[in-house]
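Input (structure):
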């Protein structure tokens, strides 16, 4: 479930917009930076100060003048502009409780232009619900540490209930002296059906217009790896 193939998808969508783009949960800039480098007028928002600090450290002085990002919760913010596209990637929506989701939808609707779209990607809840009750740790991806150059192996395991799945991401930094430094990040994803997401968005006057199952824009199926929803602001709201 590590999203490494999604950047072209977000770039294509953003390039087709006539106005600015807002990324909710921009984190350290995994998506925001490629959009910025492609000439997209993009603003980032995230609640995590440390992640935003890391993002700032990656920017050249020129880029710091071009990009704006804000520290705020995605269900409580107000920006003095509207956006042709607002997106929430990296599986964040399924980690939110219902009240937070509904408040976030309201903020999104208020910040969209009249023809603006909201795009969200998350793990397919149907596929998640079909997993075994417990998953053993297995390596998902490897990459080099940006400072030491030593390999980092990312593995995951999970525990499943009838309401949610808890996923444990283990980041193992393989040091040159043979030691391993492990950092574990836990995420809880609520098992909400596509139909429930559809109904919530409609109630917030965000009308789903496309449903994809992967970042190649294949139609959503029960066994698709992802649930990707594109919703348009209801006319008049």
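Output (sequence):
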């Amino acid at each position: 479930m590590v999203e490494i193939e999604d950047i072209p998808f977000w770039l294509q969508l953003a390039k087709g917009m006539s106005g600015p783009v807002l990324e909710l949960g921009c984190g350290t800039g995994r998506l925001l930076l490629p959009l910025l480098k492609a000439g997209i007028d993009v603003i980032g928002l995230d609640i995590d100060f440390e992640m935003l600090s890391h993002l700032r450290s990656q920017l050249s002085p020129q880029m710091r003048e071009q990009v704006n990002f804000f520290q705020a919760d995605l269900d409580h913010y107000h920006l003095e502009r509207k956006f042709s596209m607002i997106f929430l990637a990296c599986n964040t929506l399924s980690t939110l409780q219902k009240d937070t989701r509904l408040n976030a939808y309201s903020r999104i609707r208020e910040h969209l232009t009249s023809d603006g779209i909201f795009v969200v990607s998350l793990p397919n809840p149907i596929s998640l619900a079909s997993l075994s009750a417990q998953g053993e740790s297995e390596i998902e991806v490897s990459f080099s540490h940006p400072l030491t150059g030593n390999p980092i192996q990312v593995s995951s395991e999970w525990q499943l209930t009838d309401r949610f799945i808890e996923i444990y991401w283990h980041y193992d930094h393989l040091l040159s002296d043979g030691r391993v430094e492990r950092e574990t990040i836990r995420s809880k994803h609520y098992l909400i059906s596509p139909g429930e997401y559809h109904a919530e968005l409609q109630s917030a006057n965000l009308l789903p217009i496309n449903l994809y199952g992967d970042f190649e824009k294949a139609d959503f199926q029960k066994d698709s790896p992802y649930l990707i929803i594109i919703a348009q602001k209801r006319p008049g709201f």
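Notes: The CA atoms of residues 25 and 46 lie 5 Å apart. The mean pLDDT is 92.
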